[in-house]
Amino acid sequence: METAERDGCPALILAPWGRDAAVAEALLRQAGSASIICRDLSHLSALLGDEICCAVVTEEALRGADLAAITVWLATQPRWSDFPFIVLTQRGGPPDANTGGESLSERLGNVIFLERPFHPKTFVSAVRTAQRGRSRQYEARSLIEELHEGDARLRTALTAGQLGAWELELPTYRLTASGACTAVFGWPPGRPFTFGDLEAGVHADDRDRLREAVRQSTETGDDLAMECRNLWPDDTLHWAELRARVVRDRKNNAMRLVGVSSDVTARKTAEDNLRRLNETLEAKVMERTAQLERAHEAVIEEVRQRERTEEALRQVQKMEMIGQLTGGVAHDFNNLLMAVMGNLELLRKQLSGERIVRLIDGALRGAQRGASLTQRLLAFARQQDLRIKPTHLARLIRGMTDLLERSVGASIELKFELPEQLPLTLVDANQIELALLNLVVNARDAMPEGGTITIRVDAVSSTGRAELTEGDYVRVTVSDTGCGMDAATLSKATEPFFTTKEVGKGTGLGLSMIHGLALQLNGALRLVSEAGRGTQAELWLPVTSQASGAPAQEEFARQGNSPVVARATILLVDDDPLISTSTSYLLEDLGHEVIEANSGADALDVLRTGQRVDLLITDYSMPKMNGTQLAYAARELRPGLPILIATGYADLPQKTNMDIPRLRKPYQQQQLLAEISKALCGVQARPTSSSARNVSDTTDPEVD
């Protein structure tokens, strides 16, 4: 890094008298550093710029000179820049002589004084010190640019979610709000918007609630979450949702609230309409019930059943609406994470230095946690990519007994009731293991003083009531002797982001993920709990008549590592430049030749030219022609062409005539290598043994 900066970052030399300039230039040239000799102070001022590493100036060239142009340039430096000067002084002279009433240190800022005559090594060392300092400034510039890029991506995510960002400084109550945030309150763009303006616009009946929510969040550190009515300047009534968290300083003092806002008028209007409809419906039901009670009591039961069904339907509609929103946001976020993770992997190979590697590894871990979060969101939205096969659940649970016992600790007794005679059920083994681990860890956390967790598997039947269709099921029950939940908490337990744990201990997606997984497998999650009497979680999964395949352990023994694939020509298709560029670099780093296309039509043009293409990798979600349509058209041109379709979730059509392997986003280079190996060599991926599975291979366990 230091050599690169010296070669491409010259030093300026101003020594108008004697041979000082020539000597300094020669010493720097011998040390491998470029330099430019300046005629006078004006020449030096004109050459000053961000890509100059330092300036070597004799003291007599500055004494009594007009430094206004230099000091103006120094004052307008970017925040990352602190330009260094090396001032060559006379022996015995003052090292920091006054110039126009101020010392050189005061006028120039970053100054190194070097007394003449000096040893050549001393001079070169001083210049290298300045170069190293300048190099660190360039690193700071790169980090600032990366931060700006991250901020831009955050703004993109906020825009995609139709969210406005805001910050409230404490205790001054100075408000900073984005244009999207002020728009939520009907404020015209560009006009100043203060917290007083926000309060004044809130409906009088909700104003005290807003103040109390801000006060409580500031004092307790709890997240702020509330909905309030607000009157726009045109006197129309709207609804706003505010969510925020408290940011503290190193002394744990509350410094500001950072949050987002959204316009929920449409949802509240729909809820009001639904409430009025429900009130009308309830009135009619009550009237009809009175008539039926006078006529016949097996009829009263029918009406009650209808009421329960309607309530269940309302809950299903509510969760479906939230699921669609979270699924869409998670899919877009997957694409952003794909670019971040790909670029970080490549950076880690290019850069050296322990500190830089630690920073990149930390960023990668953060991106991987983000990927885990999106997988939980997709699980809740029932849009995750499942690999289902007939499974004997009792055997599956026996295989992860050691993992469960290590997870609960010594203070909790773990009991199993796992009969061998059980029907099979179609499940994704990894996801079921993760769901069971979540339930066990939740049960453990509900028993801080110790207790008993019982895991039972049995065969049951459903009569078709509530959320389950009529038929046979295998039921996995996890029960504990812990603190239990009251009715209010139980009613919200499977809602996304709801958690009773303290901040930082959970995201509120554990049970919602299991709920989404159960629905995606045509089953259900049922919770039975009472405060002080423990909790019982039941996972109902439908029975299948399909025969089971080879046990996981046998299949694991047959498979080997994916072989190293020879150099291949890969046609990469993606309409997102961020994804296309990062994936292209990952493929080239693996030694492959990459042809990029930003649409299905461009990809077909490449195939028609007759160029060599060994493998087609295409994104699924693209305008005009999606990945499946492109695959059909490509196979018509080249029938034997191997194809991979990259997708953020299971959004491919269910009925296709081609067995097209999928590459799940966000993927890393090793996953990309494995899938390319399978596609080009016909190698199956190594399965994960349920007895030795590392939970982090899929997603971190959510413990809510």
TrEMBL record:
<dbReference type="InterPro" id="IPR001789">
    <property type="entry name" value="Sig_transdc_resp-reg_receiver"/>
</dbReference>
<dbReference type="GO" id="GO:0000155">
    <property type="term" value="F:phosphorelay sensor kinase activity"/>
</dbReference>
<dbReference type="InterPro" id="IPR036097">
    <property type="entry name" value="HisK_dim/P_sf"/>
</dbReference>
<protein>
    <recommendedName>
        <fullName>histidine kinase</fullName>
        <ecNumber>2.7.13.3</ecNumber>
    </recommendedName>
</protein>
<keyword id="KW-0175">Coiled coil</keyword>
<dbReference type="InterPro" id="IPR000700">
    <property type="entry name" value="PAS-assoc_C"/>
</dbReference>
<dbReference type="InterPro" id="IPR005467">
    <property type="entry name" value="His_kinase_dom"/>
</dbReference>
<dbReference type="InterPro" id="IPR004358">
    <property type="entry name" value="Sig_transdc_His_kin-like_C"/>
</dbReference>
<dbReference type="Pfam" id="PF08447">
    <property type="entry name" value="PAS_3"/>
</dbReference>
<dbReference type="InterPro" id="IPR003594">
    <property type="entry name" value="HATPase_dom"/>
</dbReference>
<feature type="domain" description="Response regulatory">
    <location>
        <begin position="569"/>
        <end position="680"/>
    </location>
</feature>
<dbReference type="InterPro" id="IPR036890">
    <property type="entry name" value="HATPase_C_sf"/>
</dbReference>
<dbReference type="InterPro" id="IPR003661">
    <property type="entry name" value="HisK_dim/P_dom"/>
</dbReference>
<dbReference type="InterPro" id="IPR035965">
    <property type="entry name" value="PAS-like_dom_sf"/>
</dbReference>
<feature type="domain" description="Histidine kinase">
    <location>
        <begin position="328"/>
        <end position="545"/>
    </location>
</feature>
<dbReference type="Pfam" id="PF02518">
    <property type="entry name" value="HATPase_c"/>
</dbReference>
<dbReference type="InterPro" id="IPR001610">
    <property type="entry name" value="PAC"/>
</dbReference>
<dbReference type="InterPro" id="IPR011006">
    <property type="entry name" value="CheY-like_superfamily"/>
</dbReference>
<dbReference type="Pfam" id="PF00512">
    <property type="entry name" value="HisKA"/>
</dbReference>
<feature type="domain" description="PAC">
    <location>
        <begin position="224"/>
        <end position="276"/>
    </location>
</feature>
<feature type="modified residue" description="4-aspartylphosphate">
    <location>
        <position position="619"/>
    </location>
</feature>
<keyword id="KW-0597">Phosphoprotein</keyword>
<dbReference type="InterPro" id="IPR013655">
    <property type="entry name" value="PAS_fold_3"/>
</dbReference>
<feature type="coiled-coil region">
    <location>
        <begin position="267"/>
        <end position="298"/>
    </location>
</feature>
<dbReference type="Pfam" id="PF00072">
    <property type="entry name" value="Response_reg"/>
</dbReference>
<dbReference type="InterPro" id="IPR000014">
    <property type="entry name" value="PAS"/>
</dbReference>
